[in-house]
UniProtKB/TrEMBL annotation, chains A, B:
Modified residue annotations for N6-(pyridoxal phosphate)lysine: 236
Oligomer status and interactors: Homodimer.
MF GO annotations: kynureninase activity
Pfam family, one: KYNU_C
Binding residues annotated for pyridoxal 5'-phosphate, in chain numbering: 105-106, 141-144, 210, 213, 235, 265, 291
Reported function: Catalyzes the cleavage of L-kynurenine (L-Kyn) and L-3-hydroxykynurenine (L-3OHKyn) into anthranilic acid (AA) and 3-hydroxyanthranilic acid (3-OHAA), respectively.
Protein name: Kynureninase
InterPro entries attached to this UniProt entry: Kynureninase, PyrdxlP-dep_Trfase, PyrdxlP-dep_Trfase_major, PyrdxlP-dep_Trfase_small
Family: Belongs to the kynureninase family.
PANTHER family: KYNURENINASE
Organism: Streptomyces lonegramiae
Lineage of source species: Bacteria, Bacillati, Actinomycetota, Actinomycetes, Kitasatosporales
Length: 416, 416
């Protein structure tokens, strides 16, 4: 195989420069710590926002080191989960008071599912048919499936995996809750949140959405589409840092009946009353559990500053332009048949990543990383490239496709 | 009321100076960021270890900012929960491979209780009498009771609160598990870990210990006393920082049957295989759930360096000397009857805090804090003073009692 021909390269590189020059989000790059690599793994771990190091140093040295215990009140530690939850909420279309940050995504899936089952069963009390079924999209990120299996076992429900494309048709009179990933972690396929949610409601079920691969990459519209509950992580497109706390959305209408399986003291109506009987707090903070992880949470809060003044519509427009452009560059540079895109061509079905099926994907990705293009590999044969509109440009995108073509052509390594 | 007389003060201050001069742990103070206040709230939030700020800055700037996704492997992020777990393990008498760090204490109580119930019921399969009872010490920190209630509800068990002093006698043929706080958060009473554990085993039950107020303050001896499972936080005597991750101990003998109610992908035998079926990992990491909170976890790891070369026996000896000395100073300075110690006089029943019942405790503590002595207040009438042997000295202790006496005497404020 040959390398991409020079005229195609020159033409696309020129187009990339024009697109970058016209990009209204390009100034946001300065808000991140970047380097010479093309970082296309922000769908796994977002890059470091420039404001985080100084803010975290202040949290450690002053709030913890000097104020110590007083910071729970004076530095706003105690209320951080709901305060930061509201900021995440804005990015996923949730009005204030419905999102709390804390715990891992897995733990939040457990809260959301058991909570949803209890609400659905409560709504169906007295019916002839039991609501004793949990549906999960069968290509789910694994942890959702494992946790759903545990939730099913502990609530006496059955778990039934269903392809996401068939989810709307599969919900039925026995369905208590359907758990769906908004964007498939492997293929980058965007699932139909409004349609599946409406179908779930029509069947009397609740729908829980996992937003890990959509929040910060595209508008979600939780309130607009009447979503019941949702969870997501904050370390991908929200750039909160490694293992930063996840979040739980409980729609306002469900909050009075949200009955958490993890009723820790932080969700008590009077947490410092230290009463032996549990009385849940009102509102989103009913989803809290134990003492929040302050260092990680306040790093996340600082990271969210990059979203000030950013509309998710603009992010979505750039995301689609980036993935379109990447697919075009790959089409121009990589010999036909050498890779196959698993990511849908239709915009309405695409998240913010491109997944390419490729023989020797593990070795190819290792070589890409050596040459300064960082994506990731998903067993057994998938190259994943995540496009983070706040800090990825079109020149980066062209270069990634060019280096990919060179690697696939077996050309000597050269970091462009 | 009068202030303490000058000769008593001079005599105890002199004794404090001698005790500090002879204290083999006194050099450890230099490992912490301290100031002019007497900080006796390390049983709520430990002081900042001096090594943490630089380490955390490096984690943020280099590991996250520069290495980004590579740090999961190259910087040892992925294995942090079990690596740091082993370091916590040494401090609570657990051989390596039995402790993982992650999640909050509340979430770990849920894992431990449900896991213990399943093991106990498995061991009793085929018996006539069901093991369907959870005992909890009735003065427990509230979150343990709330979570125990949820665990009971979700496993079909009954929850029965029992005074810790009667726990050994209360375990019976129906008991699946007893949940006991090693040290009572309010009174500072140390409960009988070896005796209650042995009584539980004699009845065929498991015992889960909450070590929040003992780990880092006294030897726990988990392996030595045959403890089944245990949980604890790391932000009190272990100084891990606000909301730093908690830990879960599962004794080696129980690990093959530990069946977590929160089987997240981090506890899978092959987490990156992304298999739809859950297969638990062997060993302690079966207690992991979702992606670990790296910033908080690595701050904790740096904080644990202060324990290098420290024996928990030495810590315990100093802890008892401090609390003894505080009680003596209070006895000498505070008029009889003005406060009442809730903390047992017997060393074998005392943790590392002194709790004084006092009228107007809320106002008294607020004034103490204004005068530079930081303890805390527990509703409705308790002053808590935590003694952290690594950074609290005898002169601090004498001063705290002296300021307390002055506050109680209504004398004009003067920070000594």
């Amino acid at each position: 195989m040959s390398e991409p021909n020079a005229s195609a390269t020159a033409s696309l590189a020129e187009e990339a420069a024009k697109l970058d020059a016209a990009d209204e989000l390009s100034a946001k790059r300065a808000d991140f710590i970047l380097d010479d690599t093309v970082y296309l793994d922000g769908n796994s771990l977002g890059a470091l926002p420039a404001a985080v190091p100084a803010r975290l140093a202040d949290v450690v040295a002053r709030e913890w080191g000097r104020l110590r215990i007083r910071s729970w009140g004076e530095s706003g530690w105690w209320t951080a989960p709901e305060r930061i939850g509201d900021r995440v909420g804005r990015l996923v279309g949730a009005a204030p008071g419905q999102v709390v940050v804390g715990d891992s995504t897995s733990v939040n899936v457990f809260k959301a599912l058991v909570g949803a089952i209890r609400i659905a069963q409560g709504q169906s009390a007295g019916r002839d048919v039991a609501r004793d079924e949990i549906l999960v999209d069968e290509s789910t990120f694994p942890t959702d499936g494992y946790i759903a299996e545990s939730a099913a076992r502990m609530t006496g429900c059955a778990l039934r995996p269903v392809p996401a494309a068939e989810m709307a048709a599969a919900v039925g009179p026995r369905t208590a809750v359907a758990l769906v990933n908004h964007v498939d972690y492997r293929t980058g396929r965007l699932h139909d949140l409004p349609g599946i949610t409406a179908a779930g409601h029509a069947a009397g079920a609740l729908v829980v959405w996992d937003l890990c691969h959509s929040a910060g990459a595209l508008p979600v519209g939780l309130d607009e589409h009447g979503v019941d509950l949702a969870v997501g992580c904050t370390y991908k497109y929200l750039n909160g840092g490694p293992g930063s706390p996840a979040y739980l959305y409980v729609a306002r209408e469900h909050q009075p009946r949200f009955d958490s399986p993890l009723p820790g003291w932080n969700s008590h109506a009077d947490p410092f009353g230290m009463a032996p009987a549990y009385v849940p707090a009102d509102g989103a903070l009913r989803g809290r559990v134990g003492t929040p992880d302050i260092l990680s949470m306040l790093a996340l809060e600082a990271a969210l500053d990059v979203w000030d003044g950013v509309s998710t519509a603009a992010v979505r427009a750039k995301s689609l332009a980036l993935t379109d452009f990447f697919l075009r560059c790959v089409g121009a540079y990589v010999p036909a048949g050498r890779v196959e895109s698993l990511t849908p061509a239709a915009h309405g079905e695409r998240g913010s990543q491109v997944a390419l099926r490729c023989a020797d994907a593990g070795e190819v990705m290792a070589e890409l990383i050596r040459r300064g293009v960082v994506g990731d590999f998903r067993h057994p044969d998938v190259l994943r490239f995540g496009f983070t509109p706040l800090y990825t440009g079109f020149a980066d995108t062209e270069r990634a496709a060019r280096v990919l073509a060179a690697v696939l052509a077996g050309a000597p390594g050269e970091v462009a």
